[in-house]
Amino acid sequence: MGNNLLKGKKGIIFGALDEKSIAWKTAMRCYEEGAQLVLTNAPVALRMGEINKLAEAVKAPVIGADVTNMEDLKNLIEGSMKHFGGSFDFILHSIGMSLNVRKGKHYTEMNYEWNQKTLDISAMSLHKVLRTAWDMDALNEWGSVVALTYIAAQRVFPDYNEMADAKALLESVTRMFGYYYGVKKKVRINTISQSPTRTTAGSGVKGFDGFISYAEKMSPLGNASAEDCANYIALMFSDYTRMVTMQNLFHDGGFSFTGVTGAVIEQMEK
């Protein structure tokens, strides 16, 4: 049940692939809270996923876009503004892909052409989305942009590989563009650093099952679920977080500030 937290607000959700994805759950939550939506993903993801099912549930059009292609992004923003009847209020960037991880390349032996694609899709795509919205004056004053990240941007998680570099770049883009968009139009831009989550993408990381168990033991509140993250994102899109910008917000049950827990010590002593 919603509380009209986003009543009258309009926004674009990037990255909803299937019912496990945070973007999917965020779209559902925002709709429940009264928002109007446009859904988008890469053409290949649209073919693989079930986004039309989500579109029907949240009464939203689906506009495909390659986030590395400025012309695609322009068409997406134009189509969204046409649907909404003008500018809109929020964007969720839930996008990440690593060819080196997919193909089992070790961090010390990465293919640099693949690495460029990883950085472009997973990080610079946020800059391109923001640049397009900026050029087209698409976001309303006090708008909100959220991108999903992970603590591997600050700490070493070996099997996260080059995605750690991509997330670090993503967070830097958030701060830099957050400054300029804040000065220009009071638009706020933040990243949410989420717990390891059993999404289709997350489950593809080597050793994921073992790590999610470790993170559960290391988090005083336990791992944050995709549903919990969707709630937090909806809050970030609301007027209750107007003065929060350029931040990396940890949403991980306390994992990020915990040195060790009794549960981990107990496991190590077995």
What is the average of the pLDDT values?
94
What is the CATH C-level name? Alpha Beta
CATH arch. level architecture? 3-Layer(aba) Sandwich
Helix content: 40-55%
Instruction: Please provide the count of β strands.
Output: 6
Query: Compute the gyration radius: what is it?
Result: 18 Å
CATH superfamily: NAD(P)-binding Rossmann-like Domain
The CATH topology is given as Rossmann fold
Quickly count the domains: 1
The order of strands across the largest sheet is: 2-1-3-4-5-6
| Strand residue content | 5-15%
Tell me what the structure shows.
- This protein has 270 residues and is α/β, with parallel strands linked by helices.
- It has one domain (10-206, 223-258): Rossmann fold (3-Layer(aba) Sandwich).
- Helices cover 45% and strands 14% of the residues.
- It has a six-stranded parallel β-sheet, sandwiched between helices.
- Strand 4, helix 7 and strand 5 form a beta-alpha-beta unit.
- Helix 4 (70-84) packs parallel to helix 6 (112-135) and helix 6 (112-135) runs parallel beside helix 7 (163-185).
- The mean pLDDT is 94.
